[in-house]
Amino acid sequence: MITAIILLTTALITSMDCLSPSSMTVNQAKAQIFWQTCKLSSDKPHKCWVWPCLHCSLHDSLAFFLVSWKLIVLLTITVLVGFCSWYVPFALVQTWNCIIMKNQDVIEQPMTLETLPQRLLNEAEYFIERNQQRPFFLFISFAHVHTPLFTSKDFMGKSQHGLYGDNVEEVDWMVGRITNVVERLGLSNKTMMYFTSDHGGHLEDSDSRGQKGGWNGIYKGGKGMGGWEGGIRVPGIFRWPGTLSPGSVIDEPTSLMDVFPTLVNLAGGELPKDRIIDGHDLMPLMEGKVLRSEHEFMFHYCGIYLNAVRWHPQNSDAIYKAHFFTPNFSPEGAGGCYTIHICRCDEGFVTPHNPPLLFDLSKDPSESTPLSPDEEPLFFRNHAEDTGGCERTQGNADTSTAPAFLE
Length: 407
Hints:
This protein is an alpha+beta fold.
C-alpha cells in the first residue's frame, strides 16, 4: 500500500493556497489530483506530503516517488551513524588517530602517547650505536612541549609549572639520555649537538589546567606572529667538547637558515653555486674567530607577507627592527590573539604601520616603546623621501650621529 507521496521541487511554500485553479499549471494540477487521491485512498491521509513551488508562476517539472517508511528509517539511521562516526572521535574522544612509520611501514596505529618517548629514545640510541664508526646525522623531533601536552608517568607532577613544566622536565631527561650515549661511545669530541625550536610559545593555548603553549619571558608576542620577538626568538644551544667553549654566550643575531651552510662546511661539502644561500656558517662565530654575525639584515615573514626587517649596523651594538604591520591583539589590552586562538597575517587581522614601528632591540628587547622621529630622525626622513611624504613630526634632534636606517 502507498504510504507517502513526495513531491520534489526547487523550493517550498507555506500554504496550499498556491494550488488554486486560477493559478495552477498543468503539472500543479496533477499535483492537486495526486494529493486528493492520496487523501481518499489512504487510511492515514496525514502521511500524504506535497511540497510545491514557492512561486505559482514558476513552471517547475514535478517528480513523484513512492517511498516506504522502512527506506526512510534506514536512510535516517545511515545519516545519524555517519555523523556520529565523524563527530564522536574528533569532538568527544580525547585520542590521537596518528600513526608511527619506520621507513615505509606503519608500525603503530593509533599512536600510543605513553610509549612514544621511550620509542623515540630507543631508535635514536640504536641509530648512534650502529653508526658510531662512520659519520652520521641524527635529526630527532620531540613530540613534547606541544599541544596536546602529554607526559609519561615518571614525570607527571614533577614540575612546579604544571603540565607544560612536566613536558620540559621530560625533554631535558631525553636530551640527557642521548648525550650519555654519545659520551659512552667516546664520540663527544667529534660530535656537535644542537638544540633549538621552530618558534616561540603559543600564548593563547591554555585550559583549566593552566598554560599549555609555553612562556616567552620579556619578549612580546608568540607563535603565529612573524614580527614580535616572542614569536621568532628560539633557543640555540650547542655542545661540542674540545671545540666549543662551555658556558659561552653569543648575543648576535643568527638564524635557523645558518644550520645548512654550517653542516655542509663541517662535512667538507660545497654549497650550491646556482642560488643565493641566506644562511651563514656559524663556526667562526662560535669558535670566537669573529665577534659579529654575518647577518647585517634579517627579514621576518608572517606567511607570505614581509612583517619586519632587522638591521645590525656595522661597527655598532644597536639592533634595529622595523615592523610594517602588527597583529591585532584580542580582546583589547591582551598580549595575544585570544579571541581567535592564534594571530593571523591577512587583512582585517593586522594593523599596517606607515611609517613602520621602529625599535632598538639592544636597548628595548621587549619592544615596548617605538622610537620617535626625535630619536631617529634619519630613519623617518628617509622613509618620507622614499614614500613621498610623512606626516609625523621630525623634531629638532641632532642628525650627525643618528644611524641612517636603510639609507
